[in-house]
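step 4 of 6: structure.
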Amino acid sequence: MDLRVTDLAVARGGIPLLEGVSFTLNAGEALVLRGPNGCGKTTLLRAIAGLQPALQGQITCPPDQIAYAAHADGIKATLTVAENLQFWAAIHGHRGIDAALQSLNLADLADRPAQTLSAGQKRRLGLARLLVTKRWLWVLDEPTVSLDTASVTLFAEVIRTHLATGGAALIATHIDLGLSEAARLDLTPYKAQMPADLGFDDLGFDGAFL
Ligand SMILES: Nc1ncnc2c1ncn2[C@@H]1O[C@H](COP(=O)(O)OP(=O)(O)OP(=O)(O)O)[C@@H](O)[C@H]1O
């Protein structure tokens, strides 16, 4: 199994952001996407996860092979931690959440309503969801937001285990996860050229407020 992205171009809000992005991700590999705020990392991940169309290019991995962890945790506030994981496992046709609880250090919080968790605990729950989907490719958008140092290290180990068992991970992050084995792709050189007739000289404005 692999993800092959070929000559991908993406836009958001009608503005072209990235073009000519190509890479391959094989089983057992991680790729970290870098680039300044607003360059289009989230947009690229959304396109790969099948949440929005690409302007052009090919993506080989079907969305049903992908577990996408977005900025929002997608937690159901009134369910407990265990019930949230059971819900997600059932949606993906699986049972058993113990490994996910243990891996993200959530066992002691299993019976707590999710709405009572701290931000970092919620984030760990959102990331534990990845494990119960049993999907091959994890697409992770700033997965470590709200995590303390120990939890970042813990999550890096979770990713490592996923890779060691034939999974793959595509990660947009501004911080160093400590995954020295991961490849890196800086998206800065793939910034889309603005069509001349829009009158922009950058992603900013060209005097529209004057
Ligand atoms: N819903 C939206 N409608 C219109 N434009 C949007 C929308 N969401 C994001 N954008 C714009 O699209 C551009 C790319 O956003 P995106 O979130 O993909 O960047 P990013 O590289 O992930 O940024 P960051 O590092 O800040 O997370 C930005 O200029 C942003 O303002």
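step 5 of 6: annotate
 - The chain has one domain: 2-28+45-194.
 - The radius of gyration is 18 Å.
step 6 of 6: archive
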